Amino acid sequence: MLRTSDLDLPKAGTFRVLPEEERELRVQLERLTTKDHGPVFGHCIKLPPHTLQKARDELNEREESREDVVRELQELVRAQADSGQELAQAVAEKVQGRDSAFFLRFIRARKFHVGRAYQLLRGYVHFRLQYPELFDSLSLEAIRCTIEAGYPGVLSSRDKYGRVVMLFNVEKWDYEEITFDE
């Protein structure tokens, strides 16, 4: 005779009741259009509520823990630098004086997993050390001029998911005006 205890039934889990506001935001995320997102260029003063909900759902980002996670990554950078390893010390040197927004880029890219964010940061610093010629002459002015010249083209509005869309038309690229490095 087969007993229930012999079956591989999923373990009972926990759940939470979603507040009405959160349910509405999740429904809104499914129906976004290009008009639901902020401008491509310029500063974003306040993120739309549906974007904050997406950050909670997809990245596990919480406003109340954001500063703690940034601090944890900063502490990991210091601890690794204390190990004496050359690249770890270079990472600590490159990020010295950077604000929390800089660290948040790496944390968000790795869905708030600090260890993986540190590995991404190491890769970032390593690449910049390997190819300094790509970054030495890089300036905001050069980037602005390149974009204004249409290399690449940037659509004036975001896609329905809030992403910036860039178009590269290699056929029209004037390599004497805009160099490969630019």
Q: Which terms would index this structure?
A:
two-stranded antiparallel ribbon; 8 helices; CRAL/TRIO_N_dom; CRAL-TRIO_dom_sf; CRAL/TRIO_N_dom_sf; phosphatidylinositol bisphosphate binding; coiled coil
Topology:
Layout: H1 20-30, H2 49-59, H3 63-82, H4 86-95, H5 100-109, H6 114-130, H7 133-136, H8 140-148, E1 153-154, E2 166-167
Antiparallel strand pairs: 1-2
Keywords: Coiled coil
Organism: Hipposideros armiger
InterPro entries: CRAL-TRIO_dom_sf, CRAL/TRIO_N_dom, CRAL/TRIO_N_dom_sf
Please provide a written account of the structure.
This protein is an all-alpha fold and 182 residues long. Helix content is 51%, strand content 2%. The protein contains eight helices and two strands; from the N terminus they run ααααααααββ. It has helices at residues 20-30, 49-59, 63-82, 86-95, 100-109, 114-130, 133-136, 140-148, and strands spanning 153-154, 166-167. The chain has a two-stranded antiparallel sheet with strand order 1-2. The longest helix is centred in the middle third of the chain and has 20 residues, at 63-82. It starts with 19 loop residues before the first helix and ends in a 15-residue tail after the last strand.
